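Example 4.3 (complexes with small molecules)
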Amino acid sequence: MIPVALRWIGDAAGHLELLDQTLLPGSCTWLACRDVPTLVEAIKSLRVRGAPAIGIAGAYGLALAAGEAMRGALDADRARAHVLARGEELATARPTAVNLRWAVDRCLRVVERLPSQVGPEDVAAAVLAEARTIHEEDRRLCDAIGRHGAAVLPEGGVLTHCNTGALATGGTGTALAVITAAWDAGRRFEVFADETRPLFQGSRLTAWELVQRGIPVTVLCDSAAAHLLATGRVAACVVGADRIAANGDTANKIGTYGLAILAQAHGVPFYVAAPSSTFDLTIAAGGDIPIEERGAAEVLAPLGARAAPEGALAFNPAFDVTAARLIRGIITERGVIDPVTPQGIRAMLAAGQLGTTAAG
Ligand code: MRU
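Answer. The structure with MRU bound is encoded below.
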């Protein structure tokens, strides 16, 4: 079974449902989001998470905003202002994954193109249609990333970090889709998942997805990765991305940078898999990517169990930046960028990033 992270229920007056990822793997509980504050809370607390998935959620969030305007019987001007303001709340709910801002802006451009006198009903219908398009596009490009990635994956074990599967996207995933596409094509290899502290996306979510699909998975503590690589059981590392700068420097879940250094030290190719919506060509290099810092409790009391004394402080960056020189290739829906250079990135994206042709 391939899980689903989010689904829209009903027509433009409907609502968004999220599979609450904070409760996995213990329970599959759907959370109904009928207004933007509920969705913003869900994004901030990682009930929905993963760069493409929060982008899709943000797009549907604008449809919720238009629904709020309908219920409030706002006139055309006030409805538009309401949707714009809600767009800002959604786009800034988490700072690192560029997909969130990208998807919200794409829907806002649709609103801007509507005649100024249209009411909230038409705004809601137009935004919902764009959100559905973004969702469907993501489903298709996950499949393409999986295909391109499986073609370059060497024979042997694969190590991944965080969760980049169906739970993190609108389809089968990015890095995890590379692994599952190779598996579905009949290849057999060991799959290793870093547990991914402090929130355990690797052990709670990636392992759960792979078990659901009948693919054997071995979970390791993040601190065991160096030893695992030293054993020679890993032929490649594949991870996702939250934002990729113009030079290929890549922000992804905290621990990715360390893993990339370990992979280089052991001569293991390190691949990043991401859709073109994850590239941010306005940022020249990784040092300018905003890195989310999260609360101390995630580190001091992981999964609610106290692991450090009262009074201890915590350092809890949610992401780090891996330099382009450590990345063998970036697997996109259009093919693999290898070597990772600014020129290679520009050439791959030259046909226009997703949505830029359709949405201006
Ligand atoms: O904090 P999270 O769980 O949203 O972080 C997710 C990641 O870092 C993923 O690797 C990334 O978003 C790519 S998901 C296809």
